[in-house]
Amino acid sequence: MELSRRALLVGGTLALLAPRRLYAQSALEREHRPLIEAPSLSEDPSAVPLQVSVNHPMEPDHFIRSIEIRLDNDPVPYKGRFVFTPSNGAAAIAFHMRSGAGGLLKATAECSRHGRFTATKEIRVAEGGCAGPPDTTRDRLGNPRIRLPESIKAGVVVQVRAKVDHNSYTGLILKNGTYVREAPEFYVKQMLVFLDDHKISEFQMTSAVSANPLIRFSLKTMRSGTLRVVFVNNEGQRWEATQPLRVT
Q1: Paired strand residues for 44
Q2: Alpha-carbon 123 to chain mean position
Q3: Most buried residue, 5, 65, 69, 136, by CB count within 10 Å?
Q4: Predicted local confidence at residue 29, as pLDDT
């Protein structure tokens, strides 16, 4: 009888604790879950607009380290890994991507304290975004540029736009319903962001990123300096753009 009463008390205590644990877990999920913004149906599969962000503090000891994006149905499933620091002020990335088949897009955010959290969104595209004859013209490569807001105040988070002229092709073609490789890949592989000599971000991309990539990201403007963006392609070519950052 005593054993039964004890079991009942323990069971009751666990039952009372369960909602608290569920609430804490759901609050943690809400704080870390990525927000995916993309059209449910995209008519141009070679340039699907995508934005992923996490509404989470970016403090030195507690911040979102990275966002990884993939779409397993695609011939080039891995879309990129975007690494942040507290100097970004917000974990957010926007660009255009290729998709050959659509499906369940996955975004995984890694927190410096609490691990990894994944969100998904179903997208549909016309077939063939990861295939097609490549544009092998290379006389228009480069011309990197940065765009900042005209007026910047100290301590605010602003959106930065960085762009480079560069072809992007997967080297795949669709033949009899199957993707086969016809040529090597050619794409912008990496984008590095610095304020003076301080590294802000590193964005690691694949041939699934659209041609002439325009990358939008956040920056917390704590001081004036020189904002520098370095683009590197998969053949090791580099292009660099700088822009004065004047904080008022």
Answers
A1: none
A2: 16
A3: 69
A4: 83
- From the list 95, 81, 241, the residue with the least C-alpha distance to 159 is 95
Give the max Cα distance, the chain.
87
Residue (of 182, 167, 145) closest to 235 by Cα position: 167
Q: Which residue, chain included where needed, has tokens 């644990």?
A: 21
The pTM of this model reads 0.86
- Go through the domains of the chain in sequence order and give each one's CATH number: 28-245 (2.60.40.10)
Q: What is the spatial distance between Cα 94 and Cα 160, in angstroms, rounded to a whole number?
A: 10
Return the bridge partners of 195, or none. 198, 227
Q: Judge whether 167 and 98 are in contact, CB under 8 Å.
A: no
First-last CA distance in the chain: 75
Extract the runs of DSSP E, i.e. beta strands, from 86-125: 91-97, 103-111, 115-125
CA distances from 87 to 96, 158, 159, 231 (A): 24, 11, 13, 20
Give the Cα separation of 127 and 131 in Å (integer). 9
Q: Average pLDDT by consecutive 10-residue portion of the chain (248 residues)?
A: 48 53 66 94 93 97 98 95 99 95 95 96 78 69 96 96 96 85 94 98 97 98 97 98 96
Position 3 scores a pLDDT of: 46
pLDDT at 126: 79
What gap in Å lies between CA 132 and CA 66, rounded to an integer? 31
